[in-house]
Amino acid sequence: MDQEYERRLLRQINHQNLPTEARLSKCVSATCSPVSVKSGDRFIPTRAGSNWSINFHYANENCRSPNQNHKAKDASSDSSKDTVAYAALLRNELLGAGIETVPDPHTDDRRHTVLSQDSHSLFRYTVHTKRVPFDSDNEVSPYSLSPLSNKSHKLLRSPRKPARKISKIPFKVLDAPELQDDFYLNLVDWSAGNLLSVGLGACVYLWSACTSQVTRLCDLSVDGDSVTSVCWNERGSLVAVGTHKGYVQIWDAAGGRKLTSLEGHSARVGALAWNGEQLSSGSRDRVILQRDVRTPPSAERRLQGHRQEVCGLKWSPDHQHLASGGNDNKLLVWNSSSLLPVQQYSDHLAAVKAIAWSPHQHGLLASGGGTADRCLRFWNTLTGQALQSTDTGSQVCNLAWSKHANELVSTHGYSQNQILVWKYPSLTQVAKLTGHSYRVLYLAVSPDGEAIVTGAGDETLRFWNVFSKTRCTKESKSVLNLFTRIR
């Protein structure tokens, strides 16, 4: 090949491989040093700037339909499970890990400790002085046709848990005009009779989940009042309505008539909680009134412990303790006889509205703080001990436990307006649901414990399927059983 032609060809190739800025600077320079490179007479094109794996990946993504992409994600999750199972099988055969069940790759329940419990003996020489019998779990029987150990056989035969799938889209959306965007109110509740009560402005509406029929229960505008809280009793026959003027009205839902109107508060009633035939009400006047609806209104208990508005009230499942949260950042626990709180928790840095008692562990209480706190905290009310806490990243507005599994759901406000499903005690996020454009201030659970309804200042009610009906198989009747497993 001609030497001059070869030099021009190499200069052209180098010029094409240079970045744009380098080419411009080279063109404006007055002198260019000649390139003296010895090479053969074959021209081999360079493709250093091409990333073929990325290009083929984008080509496949563009050619796929959304349904195919969803199937590809499912296939990738299945392959991740196969990878975990294969890794556990290798640890059994090479390291003698003794793993009998396939860990779930999507949970964080300390699975790494199971897989790495024998990693300290890696590359360490040991001499076995005692002969291990052939019926040992880690040994292979001389009569077996498989080279795998008994532990690995159990691992391969272990059943796989079905993948948990929670829909990110609500299965129903209802308009709720005049649903107030007020953190301190509780305007949505779901009864045992599958009726949803919603306070909209000065009216309370009932929506039937069976027939989708809407009826207006009451209208307080004739009295110049408005609704600030609603709460069903356990049987789903009576609904209590708290008002802005400090009244608590008891309504018969089936008959649509007001049974009684209770006085005693000097400011709005933002929190209500039934305990059998007793009704507890919390107000901006910082007082909690506990009254039996069967007795005259004069027979009441006044619980004074908060220094600011009471915004959260919940009775324990055994009907023995009442938890109250206030705008003074305090979480108080009361018993059924004393007029003073038996426990007081002051770890939150903002208002405590979100309160929920666990139906699975006796004495386990969960609470959430407002914008300045953003934390979920768990308490052992049997001993007064603080358990766990996690920063959710946004204002915690509501909490509710699943009736069938050791999970809970939280709704949030500033600044993400999301709904989170948590697994307890690992506090792993099972799902994150979005859709509301305002703070998710209201939450209620369906009577079957499978669906939830959320309400926000965007004046919509959204229904989600978040919990399953599969009952938890773990035997942990008391919260004390749980402490021995938490490190």
Automatic annotation (TrEMBL):
SMART domains: WD40. Keywords: Cell cycle, Cell division, Mitosis, Repeat, WD repeat. Residues 174-464 form the CDC20/Fizzy WD40 domain. Pathway: Protein modification; protein ubiquitination. One of its GO terms (molecular function) is anaphase-promoting complex binding. WD repeats lie at residues 220-261, 303-335, 433-466. One of its GO terms (cellular component) is anaphase-promoting complex. It holds the Pfam family WD40_CDC20-Fz. It comes from the Eukaryota. Belongs to the WD repeat CDC20/Fizzy family. PANTHER family: CELL DIVISION CYCLE 20 CDC20 FIZZY -RELATED (PTHR19918), FIZZY-RELATED PROTEIN HOMOLOG ISOFORM X1 (PTHR19918:SF35). This is Fizzy-related protein homolog. It comes from Seriola dumerili (Greater amberjack).
